[in-house]
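Checked the freezer inventory, then went back to the computational side. Two predictions to log before the end of the day. The first one is the construct we discussed on Monday; recording sequence and tokens without edits.
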Amino acid sequence: MTRCAWASAPGCASTGAGRRPSPSWRAGCATARPKSSTRRDERMATMIHPAPVIGGAPAPHRVALPRPGPRWGPAPERPDGGPLTRARPAATWHRGWAWLSPLLPWWPGRWVLASHLAWLAEVRREADQHGSGASLDAWAAALRPALHREGLSAARLTQALALALALIRETSGQTLHDTQLLAARWMLDEHFVEMATGEGKTWAMAAAALVAALAGVPVHVVTANDYLAERDARALHAIGQRLGLRVGHIAPGLDASGRQAVYAHDIVFATARELAFDHLRDRLAARQPVAQPPSGNAAPLNNGLMRGLCWALLDEADSILLDEAGIPLVISLPTEQGMDAKAQQHTRRALWWQALQLARGLALDRDVVLDAAARRAHLTAEGRARVAERAAPLGGLWRRERLRADMVGTALVALHVLKRDRDYLVRDGQIELLDGITGRAAPGRVWSAGLQAAVSIKEQCAPSAPTETVAQITFQRFFRRYWRLAGLSGTMAEARGELHSLTGLDLVRLPSRRPSRRQDGSPRAFPHPDARWRAAADRIQELTAQGRPVLVGTDAVSDADALSAVLQQAGIAHTVLHARHDDQEADIVARAGQAGRVTVATRMAGRGTDIQLDENARAAGGLHVINCQRNTSRRHDRQLAGRCARQGEPGSAEAWICASNLTDRAPSGTHKLTGWKSRWLAWRFRLSQWIDERRQAAWRQQLLEQDRLWEQQHRLARRSAGDASGSA
């Protein structure tokens, strides 16, 4: 397992070496520490950032934290387009070497823990000093006003984390490990932290949230799904009560008054989708343009749902900021149903029906070049001529060559790229998108540029009422509005550059607490999916005979159903988890670690899924994961493999690749398969993933710019409409 992390601890005396101190730990940097530890940290800091320390440690001073009040306003929020949280430090060869560290598994190993041993010992000593029960409560009562006055200085941060450690240990029975304490500390210093899967990210996030809330900052803890939001909020509820903090979670069906009451809590657990939509609703209610909040720190709201965007802690930060950033969140309102509106809707639907008919008459490869990864279709010269010939009798708008190519290209994507039960579901006669990363239904999301209408006609769904988009935002633009931001994930190293350019935050990688016992098998290749499902049935039968639980990851609902049918024919008992069974998720996950249990799941069983082994399963060798997914990023493969062998437990994983995985994901025309060997095919598949990652990063940047442009145009339109109504 790759282990690397290079940085000195926030708040230690050596942090002045060649680095601009961040606001969260400037104050109190000269805290007394053992001489040997200080010298060691100075040597470590000098190796990383060789600029000299001038004048010793920075002078302590208070740094205000973003809280609703007279200084920050009733709803603190970073202005859109404002400066990022922190700027990139000056480039040095030491820093460049640290960025190359993921390629060197042996460097620097567990040095990150060694450089923080003195601070970790101080935290544990503080926690043990104050005993338990009434003594802890008295300590909390004294520490809270001090944090309000002084902020998160080095000394107060150490005391607050020690208090969180003691309370979590006493209330829940969980003892925070060194890596969890370090993760909480780095998040409170506004960093992204990569922890190995199974290292206890939930409690590290909880400790950071408790400390920030004790300092008076409203904290939003962003989870991967609604199930985890409810689970984690309940786990933290009793500890919050001991500290006088209120903890709540946003449930999907909660009404406006209920949401406003929950957002008044000190710590709120919610999904990114719920937070972003509530933010848009507040903006609409206040009649404030999304891209231009008032000058200053605050965006005043009139009885809004939220108390501003003060501090967000992101669980699975890379998934939220990158994987789920592909589709903007949209709020639409129904338009007037006059005769003109109905006629326009009928005309648009007729145009898309004609586009689908034109697309069905084209031959792939000859007339069309498909790029499935980018969801695009390009007409060849022969294809353009064929479309022009067939569209000539239609007249009207079809005489325009550019519009003709765009509409037929969109129709081709709807016909040949987007698949039912993989990219979307049809429920109650309506199209419901599936999240490509989590495999869950994503109500409220729609495709743009006519793609939604084309898919709706393809599936013979009834036309929906015409709507007008009144607000939209991407997760990337939304989370840049928080005054403070931090996050955790088990897989961020591959995307550290994009995350830094987006948020200005650096990444710290922490080593695993225990050596990994996961055994990774060699990749296997199959000519077509049917052969893979038959081989999977044989492999599952072999593993369950040994008493081992098995988790098979598939791409889509249809793939999970196909494997389920093969397992039924073989007489193998199993459970299926996908978007149609999302109400049974908690029960299925709870039983997935039992000896001999077989679980077939889409990406719903990826991030945030903790499969607990029973004693018999642990003795038999632990959970075995078979990856049959064709993920567009290496991060997703690591997430699925991370469901097994957690926290030093036994386990194994293997990847099964199908030839269609390569032909679907690689750019069209880059290769011709004449045969396959497992290693060669696996290498080509990794190459196609790398190409996809680069292309998707560029696409996300383009989408972010389009989102900003849409908002500017919408703001100008609203201003023009207001001026017109005022003059009238």
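The second is the one RB wanted added to the comparison set:
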Amino acid sequence: MVVSGTIYSPKFYHKSLRAELAAAYSNAHIKFVDYCPDVSSLPANLKNCPSDVAPLFEAADGTVLFDANAIAFYLGNQQLRGSNVPTPICCFRTFFVGESITQADLTLYSVAYMLFEHLLDEKALKPFAHFHRWFITVANQPQVLKVAGAPKLCTKAAVYDPKKHEKHVAEKKEKQQKPKEEKAPEDEFMDEPAPKPSKSPFASLPIGTFDYDTFKRTYSNNDIKSIALPFFWEKFDPKTDSIWYCEYNYPEELKLTFMSANLIQGMFQRLERMQKYAFAVMGVFGENNNSTISGVWVWRGTGLAFELSEDLQIDYESYKWTKLDPEAPETKTLVSEYFCREGAFGGKTPCELAVFK
């Protein structure tokens, strides 16, 4: 019986590699979804999985697994699982267990390939000729090449230099022993007062009935469609707050979708000062080399928030901003789709959605 399902994992993650290799050997039909814990969103039926773990796997029959080894075992066939007790004496065998490749080889390869690429040069590998031969044999299997590509072997290993270490320790010790400079008496030199922290430009705006902290707690801890969304429309105050739609101005420059997702995360980080007074859901839509970025924002104030301070004028010019009418049916639909992270999205296919809260 051929297994099929979806793997949720960051791209090129070494733990998910063993599962992908097992699927390649057993001809399992898997779909790969680029997923980063605490950044990307998961389907509702995977919400019970640990939020900080990857890879995750959902089989077509509803089976859900979240350990890399368990997923690899589930996706593998009887040949990969093996029937004998494994032994690492690869000098007597072509592969780790015997003369046929097994899951033991794939798992060990997924761990060892970083050593071969970054640490083990030709000199370091001389005492491990059989291990080196085993790695090259596995690396050149057609299924391994298809998933992991040709290995880039290390040409120069990192070398520990004790002289540099001793110098670093001596400098650190000297710095610790250096006496502190005496402070001049206050009557001779008056210290300049420390600059006061700058006040948020949102703090002086009128406060309405919409409390962002309360809404964010409601959004995070309850069902969005049945509880958080009605709460939003009940408390939203159009006299003091506003809803905006943004779309990236240069979609033709977007290449890989994970790079587009990084643009969103970078924007969120640089707009951290807005976090207390704003909420947003932004997403990457489409596929590699054919995608766009758009999102829905809510913030305190009825004008474009980025015009309040130069500190906020970072990424906003890369987007077209449209203020939405909270009473319009199309606004209700748009807010629902982005907040719930599901829907038609105007015919666009969501690839990655992120929440600013």
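For RB: The longest helix spans residues 103-118. The chain has two domains: 4-148, 212-356. Let me know if you want it refolded.
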